[in-house]
Amino acid sequence: MLEETIFDIAICGAGPAGSTCALALKNSGLKVIMIDKAVFPRDKICGDAVSSVTKRVLRQIHPDYEQELLQFESKAYITQAKLYSPRFESLEIAFSKTGHCIKRIEFDNWLYNLAIRENKELIVKMGSAIKDVTKEKDFTVQLDSGEQIKSKMLIACDGAHSVAAKKIAKIKVDRKHYSGAVRQYYSGVSGLSGKALEVYFLKDFLPGYFWIFPLPNNQANVGFGMLSDTIAKQKIDLKKSLHHIIHQIPEVAERFKNATALEDVKGFGLPLGSKKYKIAGEQYMLCGDAAALIDPFSGEGIETAMESGKFAAEQALKCFQANNFSEAFMQEYEQRVYRKMWPNFRNHYWLQKILGDRKWLINGLIRFGNIPFINKQIPKVFY
Ligand SMILES: Cc1cc2nc3c(=O)[nH]c(=O)nc-3n(C[C@H](O)[C@H](O)[C@H](O)COP(=O)(O)OP(=O)(O)OC[C@H]3O[C@@H](n4cnc5c(N)ncnc54)[C@H](O)[C@@H]3O)c2cc1C
Asked: Which ligand 1 atom is nearest residue 49's CA?
């Protein structure tokens, strides 16, 4: 059946980028298929920090969607970050807008179900991995089930290990612009405020950070990440390092005395937005992690995945209206993404470089930040 149909658009991946793209294509009249190797609900290794920008993206598609997210029960309300220096002095910084921590298994499933509920024409193909993508006049997406899906346009939202990005856009991992991170869910970590993203810059684990992010029901998302270049050069084992941090660093271990690990440590890669790639070409666009759109300092990529998914949907509508799928026309998408996101990526890349492993600088900045009258509010650049 699928083999005989030529779809207008194949969205590869149903995470935040793919589901937002499918949602923004509702009522388009286009024949759209969304493919994912997983069957939802599925987990995604993440810090689960869902910034306030995601609400803005949903609101722009339809104000009701933001309201639905606000009614989502299982979430923490995040109003501040608490930064710890290598000396364990802390600095609390308020966010200008409230964000959330929501387990990705729940957030992504909610977004996916919103997309299939609202985009009534959307066809979904779940539980089949994309093995290969080829292009002649149209794209052919080869699934591991043996099925082939043909489409005029391809929107790659298949994450950090995107088959489509590798095959079509020839994107390769660049370790200088890539991070590795691990996550472990805990319950019973002491001292959780319930509203702060806690970030520790630890003297023996720089550049990089250890995090404790609060979740409902006295749970926490706990993790540790570093640049892949550093991991490779210093032969760092992230899983062992997380174990060491939690159990051997007294200031941290104290908080985990009565805590219970709810799972084994799990790791995944983060393609950072500190390097520009070719993310659009004739008949295709890349979004989210497939396009390497993760903030190079904070590691946040949900908001940019959703925003790029929305931009790709809007560009696709223009292409079908103008019947123009040329490389030149598709550049509008790439330019729009980088116009919006690059200033932030560039600044945060420099912040990452400047702080590096300079303990004295991080110690100094956190101490300086505590001086009264210094503004301790972070404006969100994407609003
Ligand atoms: C440890 C860690 C912590 C992080 N913490 C945060 C955080 O706190 N806040 C934040 O904003 N961001 C965080 N990020 C980044 C964030 O997880 C990603 O940027 C975000 O998930 C990108 O969304 P996406 O839709 O592009 O990709 P994904 O969420 O990865 O979705 C891709 C989808 O494609 C599917 N797929 C993959 N390959 C195939 C295939 N071959 N065939 C078919 N389907 C396929 C997958 O099943 C998946 O559903 C973190 C990342 C890591 C690794």
From this structure: 8
Bridge-based pairing of strands 90-101 and 377-378 is: parallel
| pLDDT at residue 1 tops 50 | no
Mode of pairing for the β-strands spanning 266-271 and 130-135: unpaired
pTM above threshold 0.70:
yes
Any atom of ligand 1 within 6 Å of the Cβ of 189: no
Residues 180 and 269 sit within 8 Å (Cβ to Cβ):
yes
Ligand 1 center to residue 275 CA distance, Å?
Answer: 18
Residue ranges of domains in the chain, CATH in brackets: 2-77+98-173+273-353 (3.50.50.60), 176-270+357-378 (3.30.9.10)
- For ligand 1, say whether the CB of 157 is within 6 Å of any of its atoms: yes
pLDDT digits (tens, 9 = 90+) for 23-48: 999 999 999 999 999 999 999 999 99
Cα 269 to ligand 1 centre (Å): 9
Q: Which residues contact 54 (CB under 8 A, 6 or more apart)?
A: 16, 69, 302, 303, 306
Query: pLDDT-derived band of residue 379, with 50, 70 and 90 as boundaries?
Result: low
Hey, which of 11, 21, 33, 36 would you mutate to test ligand 1's pocket, going by the most ligand atoms within 8 Å of its Cβ?
A: 36
Say if residue 114 is exposed, middle or buried (CB neighbours under 10 Å; 0-12, 13-18, 19+): buried
Condensed to tens digits (0 to 9), the pLDDT of residues 201-231 reads 999 999 999 999 999 999 999 999 999 999 9
